[in-house]
Amino acid sequence: MSPDLTANQGAPNDEATPPVPSWHAPTAIERGLYEAKMRGDWAAYFDVLATADLYHAMSRAQADAKPGWLHYNAAYWGPPPGPKCLAFFTAGMLPAPVPDPVFFEVDLGKLAEDWPQDDEWLAINPGTPCEAFFPATAAHRQAWRWHADRMPYPPRNQLRTLWAGGPLNGPVAHGLACGALLCVKNASLWNAMGWHGTGYVRERRRLEEWWEITSREDWLRVEEGLLRGRMSSPVWSFVLGIRSALALDYGGVVEVDHWRRVTTRVIQQQAAEKENGTASLSHAETDAEIAGAQRLIGRITRYEARFRADGLLPEGRFVHSVEAWDYGRASKMARWGLGARFCDLAEAEQAVLRAGRVSRINYRSWEEFSAAYILGRCLHFDEEEFGDWYGEMLNAHRILTTDPDSPWLNIPFK
To answer: What is the pTM of this model?
Structure first.
């Protein structure tokens, strides 16, 4: 049975908050909080809160000095009689990133476990139409825990949109939509240019663990490599390029055996040219290169067959290149760099714009872009298991190509 949140967790004063009918909530989270508040339904308010990422400001010096610590700053006073509050904001209410302060991210369950002091209240989105203030004694935190345990968190596989404060059309929105597959997979706001992500410390940790990025210089190098389509395997581009050239020459579908024979011949020709130059390959090395290319062709054709069966590729079509995987990651890397403060908002936006431009140059539609992106991801991670690395992207593709609110249905690719 639900705890009595009406009695225990309402605002500190008893005055009803007047409705604000014209308020346009930035995301579904704030809309849910606002509507529950207007009804005086604090149980529903906490149900929504339990599904939300919550952000608290801290100084960058604190974050850098002790990256694993959460520093709670009592920086807000509630309405009269003015209890001391710890202020937390949902994603749609965050300000644009600045060098200092930064934010860390928590959830309601974590707050219930680690609240620092009983005499400090919880302030949610203070200064906004969906604000609310709650006492935070052990008994109240038990009620928070009850809501956190019954509601799904963290969210996954959702299209989430920033309806106010984020671009919904135009070149910047197009560039952001190039990263939408990952945004849907992680249930992050696809059009949040002012990115805070998982919070400053976790964004830095993400870049170090997955990309070995620990400095602005590292971030610039990786972002440029992604925007130039040079971070995925050149062998993939080589093999796919041969098939694309054959398709242009013959004006139709390229048979797999023809593709295999021509690939072998090109590798042998390249090895012969090296023998006439300063560098050369042994026969064993050439044979190994041919064998690797043939295995890759087999993997690609099997993936494409699965893509057609699952509706990712139309019948008779194939993937021309996998640079989309780099371009989509470049769109996200711009935001990850901003969240980690390796760049500023203007630099991140320029990188997003470039990601959109190179995507439009190299692909003809969102569907074509998506198949290329997913093939690159699968070649790198999936090992033909057709597990989560593939299934998550297939699900995101289906959402982005069918949901009426999808940027792929509302922003022309060209």
So the answer is: 0.92
Instruction: Decide: 374 and 394 in contact? Cβ < 8 Å.
Output: yes
Using DSSP, state whether 87 is helix, strand or coil.
strand
Amino acid at 358: V
In angstroms, the CA 363 to CA 352 distance is: 16
CB atoms within 10 A of CB 42: 23
Report strand pairing: 76-77 vs 84-90: antiparallel
Return the exposure string of 319-339: e unless at least 16 CB atoms fall within 10 Å of the residue's CB, then b. bbbbbbbbbbbbbbbbbbbbb
CA distance 196 to 177: 17
| Residue range(s) defining the domain that contains residue 93 | 5-150
CA 316 – CA 173 distance, rounded (Å):
31
Whether the per-residue pLDDT at 266 is higher than 90: the answer is yes
Supply 20's token pair: 């604000």
Residue 330: CB partners within 8 Å, gap ≥ 6?
Answer: 178, 223, 226, 227, 351, 354, 355
Q: Are residues 107 and 24 in the same domain?
A: yes
Residues 278 and 213 grouped into a single domain: no
Which residue is listed with tokens 């992680």?
186
| 198 and 345 both lie in a single domain | yes
Specify the amino acid at residue 91. Answer: A
pLDDT, tens digit, for every residue of 306-352?
Answer: 999 999 999 989 999 999 999 999 999 999 999 999 999 999 999 99
Whose tokens are 């809160």? That residue is: 49
